[in-house]
């Protein structure tokens, strides 16, 4: 594995001494963070050997307010954009950015781009929204994002930077997933190329919790809480029927974190299927035969499936089905069909209920724990931008707020390792077997 | 600072090869944790210098299932006890211990002591409760602890060990705060002195989140969520009245973590008072005059106070009040009285509402995030006990489950450092001033 | 309209003086209900004329404990059965029946049939479950029914009565919809024919709230609360996207009560579609064109549709589609397809989200208001059965608990009258237009 | 009992034909309510005799939109005021009034008085708040009232009417309890005396649910839900301690409806104490001895007490306590002290927890069922005011929205009759005995 590069980009030397803000100075003076403060990234030690040295390549810069800042508050014009799918906590982050700029730094010109990166593009003709404390004061009670959002438009970098120039925006907060952060990095690079002093900070958003260098993504806990409600319903439906089967499909395109945490929280799940772990449907050890045995013994079963699980089955299906039925892209629907067929052929009555709570999860307001986290993420993003940092995200690693270069953060995805503790604890909680026909095969 | 000693005690050499459990072997074989796996404790690096070396004193042993265990499952008789005040998640932990012993290790003799350490003492005549999967299957939906709890009785070590001997218990799970863990350690020591092979593992419980070497205590997130509800009510009451003042008192005897996190989650708190930060009531910069100025400008205010804050005021009161009025021990009530007097003297009408949600916080069922956490804490406690570890707690540090010696864990308390980031972020969120008459005084 | 017949059937003369139960007698003596107590059913008066006289045909018998009962408590063997789809509150009703029999009447032999009417039939071999206070004490916290449920098997009356005879059951509580109640009536009739003294009381269950002579069905309020959550999500999703459209499908086969009440509770619904009110999709005044106009003006829209709405469209579809694609039976899916086509043809981008919360609604535990209601329904059912009443349901009319003959209760369905106040208030809340091409057509 | 007088006051003959509002006419034309539509008030029939005739004195006028209205929409200036303590649903009612005036009647001049009746009085100098759809669109998510509230100032009728004259307000919506409604009636009378055409409609607010002629007051269901949470906590605390006692005090000055409904919802209450039912503390049958017996048998107990219960004890206490300690006005605190003393004297250890959730109940946002109800109350109030009705409240009787003269509504309070079904069902649910020393005494 190539060593990660934690080097941080900055616009220039921060020179503006943070003015002493009246009554509060004593507290704040003492809690500035220096640019020489880091945390060690790799903390695992096996057999006395650690991969952690104290050279630059293993140190992550601590986030937090600096004693000297790069931007003069009165000259700041900040832009905020939210991109991609909804996620609990978006409004909390927007709110924290506005409040921190306004009250902490006295920077009062803040514009919100509408509907993701489209808001930068003239063809959509979407004027920016002025953001003030009055506008944002109660928005953390609402799900979604007051700015609106959309997917795509990560390109058109030049027009975007044109727009920033036209609006005299010198500080950009990009809230979104890795596509969004890639776009933010491109903006930062283009601005640098043009000699513009625009600081670009990302706040990483991934309801799937699948970003590397992000210990736990905002909204993830709220998502798990809502997924638990859906599993609870599926369990009640399955339990109270003859041969009841509940299927719950949750988010997780490339990683099964929501499914894994949900299963451990509620204890009513019997099978968790995630993208990282292969499973057979057919054969004596496959899901279908296993399900049949469970129904015989316990009369009901709950299956929790991440949307990215079992994709190989649906490719096969697509091949065999000339009409290209698009519903087969949905693993929940696919499983339902396969299970129905299996038991129909065996003439065994089943009562199957399929729940897809995805939109109800995405659109939830953040729970209090996520709210606290989002409030701090937003504040740290402002501290970073004010200090002239650029091209990086705010992250939490080993419970410390840190700066991670976007280039590094988006270089690979976080996935569940089936050989490590999280998946072990999940399978112990569900008691599920390896759903593989040949035992010697690797589980993934 | 003396270096912490992370050395772990064990009963003896684990020799029993974990039997291959049918279908699941492939997964589990690969995820055993070795006794040579550690995590670095101190990860802060400043100016290129770290306190972290890779010598024994800075390494914490990783928790998790071992490939060889010390106890033969069929001979295990486990005891479980819950002590001290209620805390969300107690039932989740009990459930996880029972389920993991039963299904993972096939150890099926489990006894629950009733009402804390009293359950060990013959004079209370409290027979143990047999714990099986059927008994615990749904208890994580309920607040409190099915075993009951009580305070005190940390002593009488000899009788306790007599009881364990009499019941042939060779494995004890002690769920409680630092007093409880101290008692557990004494039991472990006494057992060793007698040459008994009793493995004692603690699961640290502190709703205040004030244990060192515990990143976040179980139930803490649920507690914050419930505290948020109370602050929300206080804010509505204050906001909708003329000169409305809402006071919410939350737990936190020696540290203000609940108050701090609650304030950041809800954004409606104007003053957070915690044990770690001194505040003046009187004088131009004191709370009372400050409150008056806020009411003039904003017409309402919300004060969130941890129970241990401002104790020095109540000592004074006690001294001056010969009758020793006990209600003055309650900082919420004390503040209410002082505020009432202040505005009465000034003939300013106020509408004050005091909310004490403590019992509604303590008795809540765990939220899904705490449930997941408790499930894993309980499972790791069983892994530790089965491996013959003793005199230690299960903890989460840098997001890793680890073993921490009880001796080390209870040696000091965790408190909020007013000069560090948590308190900085809180005061920025509330916008509260230093409430100190003389500015040059230290804030604590 | 033929006059309703409110006459009540009884097994015989109640003769057993309710024994004075120790401490409680004074209260209870005074609150027995006499068989001569009634409430007036029709209370509407227009222009000085009422349909209400005080003759037998307009009076409904009051429910409640009688001073003399028909069954000797020690000889009671009660049976309880839950049938049909899940509904919040089933466990509350079961609990109330058991608790009232046990503690109020000292009748302690209670059997629960498993999985609906199947539990009566030998071919399914489902032994009854013994019901005691210990078994039911906490079940009101859980959704679903501890007895399990199934659909159908309303027939086989003779075998069912054979089963009751074999078990010596003389009191039956049937919790279910109108099919279930019809089955209960048939059992009552068959028992009478055989000269058996079996008292059969129904507790009407209909999450759609569509039973006549039932002011508000149990579980309905909980259902509306959960539907509100789904609409809230749909609104957030629609509002935060470009041309966002949220579709929520809720229960309501023949009547739109859940949709109607949900729309008034949350105020974010723009179109409510119910079975009682015809709507056009096409044409200038149809839903599609209307939706287009709304998106132009407001950029988002929320549609709340009851499952029974617009069935005529799907019949047409079925006719034209030779392969009989079953998914067209789902009005939510059908609308989604039609809307997608419409805007695709117009080359207008839309972002549509379809939420079907039905299973999450059905399986919810009762909220406190429904719990109170279910507790009282169950208790009144026991009072009726003990008094020897048979062939009737417990209902709430004009906020009074009453006895309604099953024959009468199932004779017709309750539906929303589009010319009356409920629908008027709904359309005023949503501001929705008549979605009919020709204006002179009646709306239904 | 004197017959109630249901006669309605009106400002004059409604003459303005409701204009046909574009698309919606068909629906609305058909659902106007005529002034000749009534509902029968007294529906009880015993032994063939009813108190209900169809003469004027037993008929209540139906509420709803009239085909002709009194006010020309363009000339309407409406005022809204909220008075007294907080109650869930206030914002919902304000919202419904504004939305109905604006969209249904096209009446767009709406002013909100601030902080109750104080907003009418020049000495408080509180300018009115302009109310528009934008201002109120999301307020139903918030507890409390955006207008603020205060107690008192029911007098100063002349200045209030001066204020209305000065502002040219011709339509007043008064949301509050019986004091508020009395004030509203006085305003209506004074306006009539001056020959002003001001229509005054009340929306009755009483969290205690103690207004006569109001079937169920808005916010009551939400209040019960929140009270259930508190009892749940008290039960957990009591159950998990040795001799645990939980005391929950809820609202209910003169009637115990919240306590009664809460007890039936949650089933964990052992003693409900309400103002309507006398109870002894001392003596063999008193609460204290009874509690002791229960602790012996069951080890825990939960007491739910309405604030107005047992006031006679505290008068006695006040008499005997020269220092006039005001805390004895709180029955929760008083009970706690008496119970503590009792068991201390007997040297029995108890663990007592006292929870007062009142402010958390009052300030809650309305639950969906209350939201629907409030939405309809507000709309009906507007219909009444537009039709020129005055001096009356909107109420729900026998599930119908009706007009009740304020004079009649405030003439007496609704209380729980201990001899009727509600209290009977409560005592059966709790199993509580008569807590009276002498058995022949009446329970109230």
From TrEMBL, chains A, B, C, D:
Against Pfam families, the record matches this protein to:
PFK (PF00365)
Cross-referenced InterPro entries, in alphabetical order? ATP_PFK, PFKA, Phosphofructokinase_dom, PKF_sf, PyroP-dep_PFK_TP0108
Q: What class of enzyme is it?
A: transferase
Q: Where is the signal peptide?
A: none
The residues annotated as site (Important for substrate specificity) are: 179
For this record, the Gene Ontology CC terms, alphabetical, are: cytoplasm
Q: How does it assemble?
A: Homodimer.
Supply the name of the protein.
ATP-dependent 6-phosphofructokinase
Q: Which organism is it from?
A: Candidatus Scalindua arabica
């Amino acid at each position: 594995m190539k060593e990660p590069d934690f080097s941080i980009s900055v616009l220039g030397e921060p020179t503006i001494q943070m003015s002493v803000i009246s009554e509060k100075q004593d507290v704040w003076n003492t809690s500035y963070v220096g640019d020489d403060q880091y945390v060690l990234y790799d903390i695992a030690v096996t057999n006395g050997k650690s991969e952690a040295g104290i050279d630059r390549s293993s140190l992550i810069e601590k986030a937090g307010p600096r004693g000297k800042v790069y931007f003069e508050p009165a000259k700041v014009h900040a832009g905020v954009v939210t991109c991609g799918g909804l996620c609990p906590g978006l409004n909390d982050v927007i709110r924290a950015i506005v409040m921190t700029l306004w009250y902490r730094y006295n920077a009062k010109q803040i514009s919100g781009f509408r509907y993701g990166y489209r808001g930068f593009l003239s063809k959509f003709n979407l004027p920016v929204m002025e953001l003030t404390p009055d506008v944002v004061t109660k928005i953390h009670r609402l799900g979604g994002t007051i700015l609106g959002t959309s997917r795509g438009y990560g390109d058109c970098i030049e027009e975007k930077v044109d727009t920033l120039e036209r609006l005299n925006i010198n500080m950009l907060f990009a809230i979104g997933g890795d596509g969004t952060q890639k776009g933010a990095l491109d903006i930062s690079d283009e601005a640098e190329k043009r000699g513009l002093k625009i600081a670009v900070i990302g706040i990483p958003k991934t309801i799937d919790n699948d970003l590397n260098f992000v210990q736990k993504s905002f909204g993830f806990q709220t998502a798990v809480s809502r997924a638990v409600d859906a599993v609870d319903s599926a369990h009640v439906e399955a339990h109270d029927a003859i041969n009841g089967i509940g299927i719950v499909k949750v988010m997780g395109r490339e990683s099964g974190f929501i499914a894994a945490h949900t299963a451990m929280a509620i204890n009513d799940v019997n099978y968790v299927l995630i993208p990282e772990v292969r499973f057979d449907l057919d054969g004596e050890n496959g899901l279908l035969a296993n399900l049949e045995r469970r129904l015989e013994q316990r009369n009901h079963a709950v299956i929790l499936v991440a949307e990215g699980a079992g994709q190989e089955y649906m490719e096969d299906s697509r091949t065999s089905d000339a009409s290209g039925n698009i519903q087969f892209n949905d693993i929940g629907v696919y499983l339902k069909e396969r299970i129905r067929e299996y038991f129909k052929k065996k003439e065994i009555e089943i009562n199957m209920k399929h729940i897809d709570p995805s939109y109800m999860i995405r659109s939830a307001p953040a729970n209090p724990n996520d709210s606290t986290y989002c409030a701090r993420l937003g504040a740290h993003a402002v501290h970073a931008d004010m200090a002239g940092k650029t091209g990086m995200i705010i992250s939490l690693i080993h419970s410390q707020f840190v700066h991670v270069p976007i280039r590094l953060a988006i270089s690979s995805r976080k996935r569940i390792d089936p050989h490590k503790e999280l998946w072990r604890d999940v399978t112990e909680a569900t008691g599920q077997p390896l759903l593989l026909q040949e035992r010697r095969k690797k589980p993934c």
